[in-house]
Amino acid sequence: MIVKGGRTNYGELIGILMLDTKFPRIYGDIGNALTFSFPVKYKKVVGATSQRVVREADPSLIQPFIEAAKELEKEGVSAITTSCGFLAIFQEHLADAVDVPVFSSSLLQVPMVYRMLKKGQKVGIMTASKPHLTQLHFKGAGASHIPMVVYGMEKEQEFPAVFLDQKETLDVPKVKNEMVKVAQTMVKENPDVGAIIFECTNMPPFRDAVQKAVELPVFDIVTLTYYVFNSLIINGENHR
Questions:
Q1: Rounded-to-integer distance, Cα 228 and Cα 101, Å
Q2: CA-CA distance, 169 to 23, in Å (whole number)?
Q3: Which of 6, 153, 192, 214 has the smallest C-beta neighbourhood within 10 Å, fewest atoms?
Q4: Which residues of the chain have pLDDT under 50?
């Protein structure tokens, strides 16, 4: 067998475009490499703060994200994701810029999850900030036509302080309790919710707690990344 070279390092199939943040990223967060059972390659987009991405949806960030995606592709990744679900708004731009698959947001799972549910059920979305999650984001994810309910974390204490306002310490039990509370409220007020999707890439560390509390399937960026990763392997080796 003859293999092709041309790069310095290999085996990092998933590239992750990272926001420019300083908050802790615990095990389970997309920004913690130990979350994955395979190597990943990170690329920080300088200046892409939570403020500019989540609250402002700053279009001037499109080009820096495109440039970073191209760098990841050049460095050999086979698929690219991001560290913020709000980047669904850039999905088309990013996908058109490179020749590898791009899944900018866990929201891309919304149509698939909805088709799994029985008639009359809805998809529950948990997001970092409901006021800033718009139809433009759902359109970017191909999900604007899906019956769903959206609940946000913006009225809680610890979650927005850390993940939106860049507090550099994280009270893990407090955030877990906040996540569980919001999920339980969603399901209580909307008993037709058949599954939950976390928009926010900082939420996966609390997936197990939410699953246990509401007894529903929960999808997030980590479940999506594993799904894509498994599609990139042929006979145990990267097909690229």
A1: 9
A2: 7
A3: 6
A4: 235, 239
Give the domain ranges of the chain: 14-105+223-238, 106-220
106-220 shares the fold of 14-105+223-238: yes
* Domain 14-105+223-238 class, CATH top level: alpha beta
Cα distance between residue 176 and residue 239, in whole Å: 39
pTM of the model as a whole: 0.93
